[in-house]
């Protein structure tokens, strides 16, 4: 495996992109050759994903459109550049998009997204993929009552490792593994969705790492300053360990850049002990050790490749993944997202508005905003982010006052006895105290220890009081500058934030931008 850059090597493309608003998607009914668009599945900083019907093969598909925010706009159906100066950057991103599609098209593995077709049209590019039915791991983790049990995690790991191994054998490091790139099919193996090639191509030379990195999952060597630390399979090991850790911790891990200054990541062994004492969940030493090694900041101390990671995990082949039903295997620990009539949630002012994430449902472009909101209303990460932020700010103040103090997490006691689940008020451990601004300042990290999920029969404690006024960065601490607008959009639909100035302004702007697309 001599080459780990290949076509994924980032081109010289600064990004000042903004996440595309759903209303910028092509309208339903648009024909792209044999494909007819039916609605929007997702909108990110670099493109839009539509549900579509293939009139030639008579099947539904997903189509991803390359549409980098901040660089390009849509005029009619066509994509146009904002300024001519962006032409080279746009083209580099487009080439990476096409290359990613061509690479993925060479594989045929149930755990790796299949590309059916890629083509250029409307001065941009499109790739057609099977339309998977399910939700992202990020959405799934957000709706679990308790962290997933180890057998469940092993099935997830088995699938993702298989997909990654294919890529590594081709000399390609994924470099973008995150919970929103892992798709849990209703039935079948989890699927690794995309390689984020366009993002990386567009992001090189970006003024902020956050423009190209999913900072909570990216290892330190993916930061541009870390040029003496090569990237390789060990980089994907870090991200995958971070994904598992985040799902167990119920909050993304502290960014590697922040850990490099002061490592406040709660060690996996401590986290496992916490989950054992609070939830009665047992995680094997093999899993804990593999996560510890995988999350090593120093690349040299990590498993060198997936085989080494797999050996540490003592991961055995998992047969029958084509029938994997991730919800059924979680059993009652899966919080079925139909809580409006659930008395447990009567005190939740958002529950009556909330609907399940619609796995493959489309966002009708005419009513895009409400659909997105409903699909994500129950996610608790934004709330956790705010709580973490408050704690983080307090911790930061503490640091300013007494820089010599040990990190708060280091002193956080792990309960030695299991408290009753219903009354387990877990002390909030202070998250990393400061994102010491380095050459490239990063947003303050947000890490919350696992909050005990309420047992079904017990009313949940009231939500934390809404903070007074937060900035967009504070509301979405684990988003980056590209994903923040969408995160903010979602968060602003929630009661604690809706009245904040940043949300009022955001909502006003969205309404304005939606007018031409209204019914
Ligand atoms: N083949 C597919 N089938 C069903 N849903 C899909 C498919 N591809 C993408 N999606 C949905 O669209 C969303 C966005 O897709 P994707 O992650 O590929 O784009 P993105 O988030 O803009 O990219 P990036 O991860 O680089 O930011 C996904 O989270 C998923 O919900």
From TrEMBL:
Give the start-end ranges of region Disordered: 423-470
Annotated ATP binding sites: 64
Q: Where is the composition biased (Pro residues)?
A: 451-466
Protein kinase domain residues are: 35-319
InterPro entries annotated for this entry?
Answer: Kinase-like_dom_sf (IPR011009), Prot_kinase_dom (IPR000719), Protein_kinase_ATP_BS (IPR017441)
Task: Alphabetically list the UniProt keywords.
Answer: ATP-binding, Kinase, Nucleotide-binding, Transferase
Write down the Pfam families for this protein, in alphabetical order.
Pkinase
Keyword Cell membrane assigned to the entry: answer is no
Q: Tell whether Kinase is among the UniProt keywords.
A: yes
Name of the protein described by the UniProt record: Protein kinase domain-containing protein
């Amino acid at each position: 495996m001599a080459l780990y850059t290949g076509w994924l090597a980032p081109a010289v493309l600064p990004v000042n992109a903004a996440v595309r608003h759903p209303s910028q998607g092509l309208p339903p009914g648009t024909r792209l050759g044999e494909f007819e668009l039916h609605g929007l599945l997702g909108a990110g900083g670099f493109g839009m994903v539509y549900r579509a019907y293939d009139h030639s093969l008579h099947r539904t598909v997903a189509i991803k459109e390359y549409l980098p925010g901040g660089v390009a706009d849509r005029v009619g159906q066509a994509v146009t550049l904002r300024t001519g100066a962006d032409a080279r950057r746009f083209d580099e991103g487009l080439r990476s998009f096409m290359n990613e599609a061509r690479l993925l098209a060479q594989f045929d593995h149930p755990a790796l997204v299949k590309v059916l077709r890629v083509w250029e049209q409307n001065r941009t590019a499109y790739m057609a993929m099977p339309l998977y039915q399910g939700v992202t791991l990020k959405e799934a983790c957000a709706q679990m009552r308790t962290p997933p049990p180890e057998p469940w995690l092993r099935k997830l790991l088995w699938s993702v490792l298989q997909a990654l191994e294919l890529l590594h054998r081709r000399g390609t490091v994924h470099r973008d593994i995150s919970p929103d790139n892992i798709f849990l099919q209703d039935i079948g193996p989890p699927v690794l969705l995309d390689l984020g090639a366009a993002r990386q191509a567009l992001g090189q030379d970006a003024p902020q790492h956050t423009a190209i990195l999913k900072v909570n999952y990216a290892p330190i060597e993916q930061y541009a300053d870390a040029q003496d630390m090569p990237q390789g399979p060990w980089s994907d090991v870090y991200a995958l360990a971070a994904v598992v850790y985040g799902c167990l911790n119920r909050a993304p891990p502290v960014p590697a850049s922040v850990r490099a200054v002061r490592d406040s990541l709660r060690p996996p062994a401590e986290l496992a002990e916490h989950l054992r004492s609070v939830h009665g969940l047992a995680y094997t030493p093999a899993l804990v050790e593999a996560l510890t090694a995988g999350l090593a900041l120093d690349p040299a101390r990590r498993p060198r490749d997936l085989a080494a990671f797999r050996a540490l995990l003592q991961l055995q082949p998992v047969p029958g993944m084509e029938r994997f039903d991730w919800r059924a295997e979680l059993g009652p620990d899966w919080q079925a997202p139909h809580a409006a009539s659930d008395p447990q949630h009567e005190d939740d002012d958002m529950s009556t508005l909330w609907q399940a994430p619609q796995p493959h449902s489309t966002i009708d472009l005419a009513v895009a905003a409400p659909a997105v909101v409903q699909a994500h209303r129950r996610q608790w990460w934004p709330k956790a982010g705010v709580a973490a932020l408050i704690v983080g700010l307090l911790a930061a103040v503490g640091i300013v006052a007494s820089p010599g103090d040990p990190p708060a997490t280091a002193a956080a006691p792990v309960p030695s006895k299991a408290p009753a689940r219903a009354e387990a008020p877990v002390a909030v451990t202070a998250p990393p105290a400061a994102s010491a601004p380095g050459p490239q300042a990063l947003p303050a990290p947000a890490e919350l220890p696992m909050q005990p999920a309420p047992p079904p029969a017990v009313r949940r404690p009231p939500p934390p009081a809404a903070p007074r006024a937060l900035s967009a960065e504070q509301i979405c601490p684990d988003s980056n500058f590209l994903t923040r607008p969408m995160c903010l959009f979602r968060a602003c639909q929630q009661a604690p934030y809706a009245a904040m100035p940043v949300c009022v302004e955001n909502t006003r702007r969205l309404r304005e931008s939606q007018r031409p697309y209204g019914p």
